[in-house]
Amino acid sequence: MKEMMVENNVLILTINDCPGMRVVRVIGPVYGTSVRSRNIVGNLLGGVRAVFGGKQGGYLKMIAQTRDDALEQLAEHARSLGANAVLGMRFDSGEFDAGQGQAMNEVTAYGTAVVVEVL
Asked: Rounded to whole angstroms, what are the CA distances from 50 to 38, 45, 95, 101?
């Protein structure tokens, strides 16, 4: 069976079906979005590291937290509509300038909310 993720009692799958289960109701599109930024010290340290190259640990941590928040929001949205699963989940991400040199990281998780039951 494909690897599954359960977030707040909502099964989240990147595939379009759920082996061993059947879809009994399609609810529709759902999404969760999270936006984060690093503080001024983190941005300065990240800028210095970028000059010399190497792994950007602070940014990696921020992106992981942003992604996890987006998944949590996705699960909450699905659950609020009566779904117990999200199929075809994907991520979209971007970065934008919030002014004064402050970069913001945005991640959206989206998919199709459904109700599934065990066969």
From this structure: 15, 9, 17, 15
| Cβ neighbour number for residue 56 with a 10 Å cutoff | 14
Q: Which of 88, 89, 119, 93 is nearest to 108 (CA)?
A: 93
DSSP 32-65: EEEEEE--HHHHHHHHHHHHH----HHHHHHHHH
pLDDT of residue 52: 58
- Residues (pLDDT < 70) of the chain are 1-8, 38-58, 98-101
Question: Bridge partners of 111?
Answer: 30
